[in-house]
Amino acid sequence: MKRLDLLTELQKLTPPERLALIEGALQQLRADLETPPPTLSAEERTRQMATAAKALLADYTTDAELTAFTALGG
């Protein structure tokens, strides 16, 4: 369901019903935020880093703002 659909459906509820629904959603959100994210294995972390590095390779080799400090490494 899209956000606009949700808002449209919320308008059909009475204010007390909307409040109860929003309070329930907030409780779920708080519980989700308190749950620590799953820990990645070292292998999975390495795979993700390699994928990110490949995606940014062109930027690292051609973007003057990113390569300016390579002259200092000499």
Give a brief rundown of this model.
The protein has 74 residues and is mainly α. It is 73% helix and 0% strand.
Portion in beta strands: under 5%
Order of helices and strands: HHHH
The total count of helices amounts to: 4
The amount of helix comes to over 70%
Number of strands: 0
* Main sheet characteristics: none
Shape: elongated
Count of structural domains: 2
The chain-level structural class is: mainly alpha
Mean pLDDT across every amino acid position: 89
Radius of gyration: 23 Å
Describe the structure.
This protein is mainly α. It has helices at residues 3-11, 15-34, 42-62, 64-67. 0% of the residues are buried.
Characteristics of this structure?
mainly alpha; single chain; 0% strand; 2 domains; 4 helices; 74 residues
Give me the secondary-structure topology:
Blueprint: H1 3-11, H2 15-34, H3 42-62, H4 64-67
